[in-house]
């Protein structure tokens, strides 16, 4: 599913109206009705007598609010419309719907009645549910008073909040929030997701995102390629490999993993198990020789190879020739989990990458070995996927983590340009890009912020690479599958108790769910 900016969405609206002759008022009616559907479900279809407060603004987002008010009123709800604009400012389809609301004998609740009391505050206090139709995709900057104070009042009320199209306070193109902003329980967005709903902190404020149809012609939604996609089951399912009956393990890819050090055997194991669990035919794990016996005990389906080590039981430069021989018998390399940044291990990582001939996914200490040295990356001849979290991204770009977090999109683009590789930037909405197309992943949950989570992701991506997915798709699909496995594990283990091994075990279930389309 494509992800659009406010301008791109407005252009699609205009095309629907001008080229397909769909009156704007029809789109507004459909938009309002879709929000009403979500609200009715939230109220367990018990709408009669429920108190609903609708914060309405002066634009078409407010117009959606008047449509919502009308339908909820007709369903028996007690609806208070708080208008944060002069009615004279309201025009077009929004004015038509405000007029219908007033013609029905309904009123607008005044923000204050001039003698200190605020009917609006009373309305908020007695609401069962609140609807944010204040600002939509036309918003930029900071919400002015008195709306700003009411947003804080609503957020602190403990009542459910449903935001229309986008939470008021979030900028549609960047996800930036520069002042008070509704913290939505649900956001109902129209036709296509806006970029700001999928970028931090906009994605945080959006709560559960509902992407609903408002009858824009399907051909119009595919009309242009914006190069931004929200990962969905149907797309990832198309990418995942199907195994033919005569397949043997050699057909399913051979993954070489270089990982682990004293005290970090778990990272190596999780990566290796994730790779074999994600369909790789053969997985070989190269580890410092002093840890080899432990790995033999911890792993069964994965082959292990003892390699020369430093005095600190990390991989040493002497391992280079053996690694080159292993690489000649592999389709994909996964490099980094638990390696440490021992100077000799760092030098080994750089040497391995310098004459790399097969695709690789580089994570953790593999990335740290390249801190500030993106020049090495640009000289690598084989395709490479980098999977940094914001701190590793900051080290690679020699900037601060804060700068990465304040512009995630910009920092991934910068690293792609500097390194000529595929970049996956981890976060609650993981971004994956080759500089041309960008995929946004919305699967996963906060329970996955646990040691070893990234190691599992590295193994999944390596396995998908080894099974023939392009580096961009392997990274994007890997993020989607990894997050889906975490969501399956969450149901059973809960957000605090979840550990990386739990979602490792859920990888087969996640893959089946996506492959078989059971959602
Ligand atoms: N996607 C669709 O097909 C449909 C979307 N609909 C709704 O229309 C809004 C977009 O409407 P628009 O009038 O362009 O913008 P807003 O409603 O967001 O109005 C914003 C309004 O406020 C002004 N403004 C912006 N920033 C500030 C600020 N910081 N302080 C004060 N005022 C500000 C701005 O100038 C505008 O006038 C979309 O989100 C949907 O909800 C259609 O209803 C149906 C089809
Ligand atoms: K809104």
TrEMBL record:
<keyword id="KW-0808">Transferase</keyword>
<dbReference type="GO" id="GO:0052855">
    <property type="term" value="F:ADP-dependent NAD(P)H-hydrate dehydratase activity"/>
</dbReference>
<keyword id="KW-0067">ATP-binding</keyword>
<feature type="binding site">
    <location>
        <position position="455"/>
    </location>
    <ligand>
        <name>(6S)-NADPHX</name>
    </ligand>
</feature>
<feature type="binding site">
    <location>
        <position position="61"/>
    </location>
    <ligand>
        <name>K(+)</name>
    </ligand>
</feature>
<dbReference type="Pfam" id="PF03853">
    <property type="entry name" value="YjeF_N"/>
</dbReference>
<keyword id="KW-0630">Potassium</keyword>
<feature type="binding site">
    <location>
        <position position="454"/>
    </location>
    <ligand>
        <name>AMP</name>
    </ligand>
</feature>
<feature type="binding site">
    <location>
        <begin position="136"/>
        <end position="142"/>
    </location>
    <ligand>
        <name>(6S)-NADPHX</name>
    </ligand>
</feature>
<feature type="binding site">
    <location>
        <position position="165"/>
    </location>
    <ligand>
        <name>(6S)-NADPHX</name>
    </ligand>
</feature>
<dbReference type="GO" id="GO:0046496">
    <property type="term" value="P:nicotinamide nucleotide metabolic process"/>
</dbReference>
<comment type="function">
    <text>Catalyzes the dehydration of the S-form of NAD(P)HX at the expense of ADP, which is converted to AMP. Together with NAD(P)HX epimerase, which catalyzes the epimerization of the S- and R-forms, the enzyme allows the repair of both epimers of NAD(P)HX, a damaged form of NAD(P)H that is a result of enzymatic or heat-dependent hydration.</text>
</comment>
<dbReference type="Pfam" id="PF01256">
    <property type="entry name" value="Carb_kinase"/>
</dbReference>
<keyword id="KW-0413">Isomerase</keyword>
<dbReference type="InterPro" id="IPR030677">
    <property type="entry name" value="Nnr"/>
</dbReference>
<dbReference type="GO" id="GO:0110051">
    <property type="term" value="P:metabolite repair"/>
</dbReference>
<keyword id="KW-0479">Metal-binding</keyword>
<feature type="binding site">
    <location>
        <begin position="60"/>
        <end position="64"/>
    </location>
    <ligand>
        <name>(6S)-NADPHX</name>
    </ligand>
</feature>
<keyword id="KW-0547">Nucleotide-binding</keyword>
<dbReference type="GO" id="GO:0052856">
    <property type="term" value="F:NAD(P)HX epimerase activity"/>
</dbReference>
<feature type="domain" description="YjeF C-terminal">
    <location>
        <begin position="232"/>
        <end position="514"/>
    </location>
</feature>
<feature type="binding site">
    <location>
        <position position="338"/>
    </location>
    <ligand>
        <name>(6S)-NADPHX</name>
    </ligand>
</feature>
<dbReference type="GO" id="GO:0046872">
    <property type="term" value="F:metal ion binding"/>
</dbReference>
<feature type="binding site">
    <location>
        <position position="168"/>
    </location>
    <ligand>
        <name>K(+)</name>
    </ligand>
</feature>
<dbReference type="InterPro" id="IPR029056">
    <property type="entry name" value="Ribokinase-like"/>
</dbReference>
<keyword id="KW-0418">Kinase</keyword>
<dbReference type="InterPro" id="IPR017953">
    <property type="entry name" value="Carbohydrate_kinase_pred_CS"/>
</dbReference>
<dbReference type="InterPro" id="IPR004443">
    <property type="entry name" value="YjeF_N_dom"/>
</dbReference>
<keyword id="KW-0520">NAD</keyword>
<protein>
    <recommendedName>
        <fullName>Bifunctional NAD(P)H-hydrate repair enzyme</fullName>
        <ecNumber>4.2.1.136</ecNumber>
        <ecNumber>5.1.99.6</ecNumber>
    </recommendedName>
</protein>
<feature type="domain" description="YjeF N-terminal">
    <location>
        <begin position="9"/>
        <end position="222"/>
    </location>
</feature>
<dbReference type="InterPro" id="IPR036652">
    <property type="entry name" value="YjeF_N_dom_sf"/>
</dbReference>
<keyword id="KW-0511">Multifunctional enzyme</keyword>
<keyword id="KW-0521">NADP</keyword>
<comment type="function">
    <text>Catalyzes the epimerization of the S- and R-forms of NAD(P)HX, a damaged form of NAD(P)H that is a result of enzymatic or heat-dependent hydration. This is a prerequisite for the S-specific NAD(P)H-hydrate dehydratase to allow the repair of both epimers of NAD(P)HX.</text>
</comment>
<feature type="binding site">
    <location>
        <position position="132"/>
    </location>
    <ligand>
        <name>K(+)</name>
    </ligand>
</feature>
<feature type="binding site">
    <location>
        <position position="267"/>
    </location>
    <ligand>
        <name>(6S)-NADPHX</name>
    </ligand>
</feature>
<comment type="similarity">
    <text>Belongs to the NnrE/AIBP family.</text>
</comment>
<dbReference type="InterPro" id="IPR000631">
    <property type="entry name" value="CARKD"/>
</dbReference>
<dbReference type="GO" id="GO:0016301">
    <property type="term" value="F:kinase activity"/>
</dbReference>
<dbReference type="GO" id="GO:0005524">
    <property type="term" value="F:ATP binding"/>
</dbReference>
<feature type="binding site">
    <location>
        <position position="389"/>
    </location>
    <ligand>
        <name>(6S)-NADPHX</name>
    </ligand>
</feature>
């Amino acid at each position: 599913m494509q992800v659009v900016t406010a301008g791109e969405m407005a252009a699609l609206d205009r095309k629907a109206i001008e080229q397909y002759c769909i009156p704007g008022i029809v789109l507004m009616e459909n938009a309002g009705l879709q929000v009403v559907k979500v609200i009715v479900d939230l109220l367990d279809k018990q709408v009669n007598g429920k108190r609903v407060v609708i914060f309405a603004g002066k634009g078409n987002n407010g117009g959606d609010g008047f449509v919502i008010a009308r339908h909820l009123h007709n369903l028996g709800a007690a609806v208070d419309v708080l208008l944060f604009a002069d009615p004279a400012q309201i025009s077009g389809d929004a004015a038509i719907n405000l007029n219908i609301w007033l013609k029905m004998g309904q009123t607008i609740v005044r923000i204050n009645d001039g003698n200190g009391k605020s009917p609006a505050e009373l309305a908020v206090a007695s609401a069962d549910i609140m609807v944010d139709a204040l600002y939509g995709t036309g918003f930029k900057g900071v919400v002015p008073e008195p709306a700003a104070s009411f947003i804080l009042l609503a957020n602190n009320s403990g009542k459910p909040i449903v935001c229309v199209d986008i939470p008021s306070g979030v900028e549609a193109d960047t996800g930036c929030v520069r002042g008070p902003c509704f913290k939505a329980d649900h956001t109902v967005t129209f036709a296509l997701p806006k970029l700001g709903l999928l970028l931090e902190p906009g994605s945080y404020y959006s709560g559960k995102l509902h992407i609903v149809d408002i009858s824009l012609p399907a051909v119009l939604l595919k009309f242009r390629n914006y190069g931004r996609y929200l990962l969905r089951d149907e797309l990832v399912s198309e990418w995942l490999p199907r195994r033919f009956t005569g397949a043997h393990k050699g057909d399913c890819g051979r993954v070489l993993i270089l990982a682990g050090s004293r005290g970090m055997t778990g990272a190596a194991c999780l990566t290796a198990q994730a790779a074999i669990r994600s369909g790789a035919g053969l997985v070989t794990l190269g580890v410092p020789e002093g840890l080899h016996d432990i790995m033999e005990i911890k792993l069964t389906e994965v082959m292990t190879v003892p390699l020369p080590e430093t005095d600190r039981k990390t991989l040493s430069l002497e391992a280079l020739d053996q690694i080159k021989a292993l690489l000649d018998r592999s389709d994909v390399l996964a490099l980094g989990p638990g390696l440490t940044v021992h100077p000799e291990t760092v030098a080994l990582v750089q040497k391995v990458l310098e004459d790399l001939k097969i695709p690789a996914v580089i994570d953790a200490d593999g990335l740290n070995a390249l801190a500030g040295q993106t020049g090495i990356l640009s000289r690598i001849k084989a395709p490479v996927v980098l999977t940094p979290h914001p701190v590793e991204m900051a080290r690679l770009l020699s900037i601060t983590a804060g700068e990465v977090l304040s512009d995630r999109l910009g920092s991934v683009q910068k690293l792609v340009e500097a390194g000529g590789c595929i970049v996956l930037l981890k976060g609650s909405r993981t971004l994956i890009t080759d500089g041309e197309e960008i995929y946004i992943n919305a699967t996963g949950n906060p329970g996955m912020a646990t040691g070893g989570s990234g190691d599992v992701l590295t193994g999944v991506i390596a396995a998908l690479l080894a099974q023939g997915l392009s580096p961009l798709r392997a990274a994007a699909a890997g993020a989607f599958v990894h997050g889906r496995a975490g969501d399956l594990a969450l149901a059973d283990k809960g957000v605090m108790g979840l550990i990386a091994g739990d979602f490792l075990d859920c990888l087969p279930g996640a893959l089946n769910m996506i492959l078989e389309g059971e959602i």
